[in-house]
Amino acid sequence: MSWQTVIHLKPELFERFETPLAEFGELTARAFRYASGVCGLRITNRVGQMIVLPYKGQQIWRLELHGRELAMRSMFDEPTESAEYLRTYGAFMVHCGFTAMGVPTEQDKHPLHGELPNAPYQTAQLLIGEDERGPYMGVSGSWQYAVAFNTNYVARPLAKLYAGSARVPISIAIRNLKRSPMEYMYMAHANFRPVDNGRLVYTARCTPEHVRVRRSIPGHLQPPPGYREFLEELAQHPERHNVLKPGLAFDPEVVFFIDYLTDEAGWAHTMQVHPDGSADFISHRPAELDHGVRWIARNPDQDALGMVLPATAEPEGYHAEKAKGNVKILPAGGEFRCQIEVGVLLPDEARQMEQKINRIVGA
């Protein structure tokens, strides 16, 4: 039998020193504040922990499972109070969008990746319960974004950590509160930490037709000599990025657009298989998020592997995506929903997943 208890959080509960909020078997929840003043909620099970920023985009700032940190390496040891995307950077998972998403061009007025990443959530909740997957603790909340004569929606994310599990389901529901349709774009920006000689295994056929490299270079990047030639090489031979060999020129970044295949349940799967046989993974549903974006940035200051950033559009900014027909419409009162799952697979689990992926792609 499923049940759930909701604890409504308040910013006053978050102090400089960690404070226990709840315990449920092996699961614990603790509230704290970073030195910057940003609130953090640490959920722990016997396998690891996740840190969610309940009032700052409901970002998953850190995710540690089976003894390793999954989040990208960045210049930021902790989040800052800035609402500017690049001034508080380095979370494991960031919700992006919703009125626009991606890198703005000169035509665009939206911020980098939209208004969702650092949204100041008005409510936050700690969820404690049990369902068909077992006991869990979760974090949710709500943020209403209203601009007169323009936009009015409410976003409700959810992330759960189950007892004894290294698989973390993440979802978001966004409802259009207007009495007229609205345009929308969304991306689940999950930033794993790459490992040297890690192998990328995924449910797509790795050909130039189905794994396409982005040749355009965003204005905020300054590529080094040889970068354009590296992009051209990957355009012709995308399989050369499937092993993260030290020295590959993912500096400042490389982006791919990938056509994903699914299993019989509608899920697409992506893994980074570590040299020890274990794997980091992310699964998504292309019926909900029909664009598979891969982002890799490896340099002395940032080390990140967005092995897939499931999205409703490519990340080229509102006007470019509008021209491609990728900006979607949410009807009056309509709701957008999507879900992903992230985590760590032990070697036996990773082998089983790789066999499944190979069957899907016909390898």
Characterization of this structure:
Helix content is 9%, strand content 43%. It is mainly β. It has a single domain (3-361), classed as Beta-galactosidase, Chain A, domain 5 (Distorted Sandwich). The strands form 4 sheets. The protein has a 9-stranded antiparallel sheet. Strand 4 (39-44) and strand 5 (48-53) form a beta hairpin. The termini are far apart. 42% of the residues are buried. The mean pLDDT is 97.
Roughly how much helix do the residues carry, as a percent range? Answer: under 10%
Shape: globular
Strand content: 35-45%
The CATH class label is: Mainly Beta
Low-confidence region ranges: none
Distance between the termini: 41 Å
According to CATH, the fold-level topology is: Beta-galactosidase, Chain A, domain 5
SSE order, one letter for each helix or strand: EEEEEEEEEEEEEEEHEEEEEHEEH
Estimate the mean pLDDT confidence.
97
Number of strands: 22
Q: What's the total helix number?
A: 3
What summary fits the major beta sheet? 9 strands, antiparallel
Number of folding domains? 1
Rg, Å, rounded = 20 Å
Give the second-level CATH assignment, the architecture.
Answer: Distorted Sandwich
Q: From the helix content, strand content and strand pairing, which structural class follows?
A: mainly beta
